[in-house]
Structures are given as structure tokens and as C-alpha cells.
Amino acid sequence: MKPPLILFPHEPFSPRKVDSEFAAEFEAARMIGFPTGFYDHEATEQGNAEAAVRLLGGAGRGQRLILRGWMIPGDRYAELFAALKSKGYEPQTSPEGYSEAHYIPGAYRWTEGDSPRTGWIEGDDPDQAWLLYQGFKSRDAIIKDWVKSAKSRWKDGCFIPAETTEQRFREIFQVFREERGKLFNRGVVLREFMPIVERGSDIRGLPIIEEIRLFFWAGSLVVPPSATRPSPLDELPRWERIAKRFSSPFITIDVAHLTDGTWSIVEVGDGGVSGLPIGLDSERFFAALWNQVSA
User: Fold this and answer.
1) Which tens digits make up the pLDDT trace of 28-76?
2) Each residue's pLDDT tens digit, 163-219
3) Smaller CB count within 10 Å for the chain: N or C?
4) Please, are residues 12 and 20 in contact by the beta-carbon 8 Å criterion?
5) How far is CA 35 from CA 51, 54, 55, in A?
6) Is the pTM of this model over 0.90?
7) Other beta carbons less than 10 A from residue 196's beta carbon
């Protein structure tokens, strides 16, 4: 089967040069044998998807395509998808599949019972958020938007101790909302805090935890993580069973080792906009991806 084209963002103001943050991946993909192309991430964010894919021309002719770029909102991905389709390309992740994996409420229906208890609201109304918190008040919790938290402000904008008062909750909410700023995604999420095995904390007080990112293609693990004991691979059938529930073929599942010895899902993400974990060599990743998508 013909390998898919890997679409990377180009460097701002240098449309013939890959974004420097993706340089190692770009070179690895080309070395493995993937065809590559560029899109304009800034134009995509600004809602000009046609301009974003101008460099690709119009000769896709059914060429399969996988995105490796920065996170974008679901509506912007839908516009990019449509622009690529109009040029004859076949992006492997549909807009529905992207949003399902990218947004916590979309993913939760497939991870409930294998991830912490979760609730959410649309928008950022602090009164609605306080009402939502009443269902989480008896346990430690964290606050996020539909994609990300403000974990850099762990103590005053992310972690919510059990039985937090309304005044303190609103203070935490305000810090969280200000920290997310224009990057705030769609709504507010509350999740029960998971007792993840910690290896200390950084200077901001953020716990350093045992969390591992796993990439999946069509429900199968793309590349095993570095050898550790205990290992999330001990429960690989569980993770692959969950991955198969998603409509997108390319997703990530972040899993963590808990203090009671079990493993739990921390979050799910779209594989195209999820960064490679530290320690995963780009060449090893794309060689493994080649074996999956070209079979």
C-alpha cells in the first residue's frame, strides 16, 4: 500500500522550510520513505485553510495524508480537512474523529471506568463551574478546559483540595482562567484527582509523575515505550481495546501508574497533534508508523 503523505507545519515566513520544532521528525519521516508536505499553521488558526494548503497544489488524487503539527480547535481542523479534500487528498482523521479524541467530553464516553470520574460544562461561567464542583467536593480534584489545564500553576490554578470553600474555589478558577487566556478550549472540566506515583516535584510544586504516552494506529500500538517496571504493556490488550473504540485511526492514550499498583488513563489525544514523549527517537517512531500504515 502506498504510504501516506506526512503534512508538517512550515516555518513562519519561510514556506519552504519545516517548522524548527518539527525538524527532527521531518528528517526522520523523509529518511524512512514517507512523502512529506507543508501547511501554514498560522493561516489555519486564522481560519484561512485554503491559504494554509496552497503549497500542496491540487494533485492529491486520493493520496492518504497524516497531519503532524500543532493543536488546533476542532472547527479549524474541519476547515483544514475540507481544504485538503478539495485538492484530492485523503486525510486519515475525519473532523469528527479529531474532535472526539481532542476534547475530553468526546473521549470520556470511551474511557469512562478506565479514567478518573469527569464532569464538564460548556463556556467559562464561574457560577456553573461552582455548581459542577458540588459533585466532586468530597474528593481532591483538578480543573481543566476541554483540552488542557493550567498545571504550571498547580497549587493555585489547577489542584482543588477536597471540601474547598466557595471563595477558594473561585480564586482557583480565576487563576486557571487567566492562565489559559486565549488558549481556553470550549468549556470547563473537573476530574477526580488520581493518586499517581510521584518522583518528587519541580520548583513550581508540580508533581513529577509516572505517566507514559502511547501512540495507536487503527487500534494497535505503534511503538512500545522504553522498558520500565512496572510497564503499561502489561495491560496492552486493555489499551488497544479502548483505542479501537475511537473513530480516528491515529490517537494517543496517556496512562499513569497509581499508588495502589493499578494503571489508569490520564487523557486521550489526537495522534496528529500529540508531541512525541521525551526518549522516543523520531526515526524509531516513523519506522514503526511506516510498518503500521503501509501494511
Assistant:
1) 999 999 999 999 999 999 999 999 999 897 667 899 999 999 999 999 9
2) 999 999 999 999 999 999 999 999 999 999 998 887 766 666 666 667 899 999 999
3) N
4) no
5) 21, 17, 14
6) yes
7) 18
Burial degree of 204 (CB within 10 A; 0-12, 13-18, 19+): exposed
- The C-alpha atoms of residue 188 and residue 142 are separated, in whole angstroms, by 11
**What are the C-alpha distances in Å from 244 to residues 78, 103, 224, 249?**
22, 17, 17, 8
Residue-range domains of the chain with CATH: 5-92 (no CATH), 100-112+206-293 (3.30.470), 118-193 (3.30.1490)
Average pLDDT, the chain: 94
